[in-house]
Write a structure and sequence with these properties.
305 residues; alpha+beta; 4-stranded antiparallel β-sheet; two-stranded antiparallel ribbon; elongated
Length: 305
């Protein structure tokens, strides 16, 4: 049984800008030997942020000097890649089991570091997701929970304060001004809650999340970015669409995140909790992966898309 994550999880970029995969390392080597792809064909492992020529990837181009059909440029992927899903599936499998199901794995999740079978893949399958289906949904579901936590934590105390002021003064007219000021302050504090609390408001902190700039993956979200990323939530009907986009986006972004050039990433402590559980599942199947995915939350935040 293989313990090397680089035996599975490869994506291929064709000369026609189409993407094919996932493919196993054995499939890539066979495609090279038979001339279906060339030494300059761009490939990316599912744990890598960028595409590189296949000849520069370790363990794939070894022994090609004995192959007579190796191409220098171009590829034949459009003609040879199977059309039916059940025919494509064996091209991505190797002797590595899925961490969650009794199937062979085809990808590796960069979040929980689980080996994933076709059943674990995020949808739609044609997209190059970095996370498994479970992590993709979990990440955004926790963002929604954080949103409601912040709504309760910020809104309830402010309106309770307004009510208390009215009780102390004992006059409806006397509380008009403070209530008006508090009513104005509530949405301002709410929409700027993340930069106010250093990149993660109370809800996100409770859920193990933080908002960072996509420029470096480290700098906390600024007030200007917070304003831009929340504009999408203020547009009627469009905000409902915006709330569903991260389930289908490989980088788990809302439109607001794209406009503001921000990313919501997980904290290292939350990631390590899930990864420890996954390593336990894999150990029960006799798998001890030699190399863990090398995309950190900061690197993930900087991936362009």
């Amino acid at each position: 049984m293989s313990n090397d994550i680089y035996d599975i999880g490869w994506w291929i970029q064709s000369t026609d800008e189409a993407f094919y995969g996932p493919a196993s390392r054995e499939t890539l080597a066979r495609y090279l030997r038979t001339g279906i792809i060339s030494t300059n064909t761009l490939v990316r492992h599912c744990t890598q942020p960028d595409f590189r020529p296949v000849a520069d990837q370790p363990g794939i181009a070894q022994g090609l000097e004995r192959a007579t059909e190796v191409r220098a440029t171009g590829d034949k992927l459009a003609e040879t890649w199977p059309r039916r899903h059940r025919d494509r599936l064996p091209l991505g499998e190797a002797a590595i089991p899925c961490a969650r199901h009794h199937r062979l794995a085809v990808l590796v999740c960069t979040s929980c570091q689980a080996t994933c079978c076709d059943k674990c893949r995020a949808r739609p399958r044609r997209r190059q997701f970095f996370m498994c289906r479970k992590c993709q949904a979990s990440s955004y579901n926790r963002r929604i929970i954080a949103y409601f936590i912040d709504s309760f934590v910020i809104t309830v105390p402010i309106y309770a304060l307004a009510f208390a002021l009215g009780g102390l003064v004992g006059s409806t007219a006397a509380i008009t001004v403070p209530v008006a000021l508090l009513t104005i302050a509530t949405p301002i504090v709410f929409y700027f809650r993340d930069p106010i609390f250093g990149g993660a408001a109370l809800g996100k902190r409770a859920m193990g999340l933080r908002v960072v700039s996509a420029r470096d993956g480290v700098t906390p979200v600024t007030y200007g970015q917070a304003l831009v990323r929340n504009v999408a939530l203020l547009i009627p009907f469009f905000n409902l669409v915006d709330l569903t986009v991260p389930y289908r986006d490989p980088l788990c972004r809302r439109y607001g995140d794209r406009w503001a050039k921000t990313r919501v990433v997980e904290t290292q402590n939350r990631l390590e909790e899930r990864r420890t559980k996954v390593r336990s599942w894999l150990a029960q199947k006799g798998v001890d992966l030699q190399q863990a995915p090398n995309i950190t939350p900061e690197q993930f935040a900087r991936i362009a898309g």
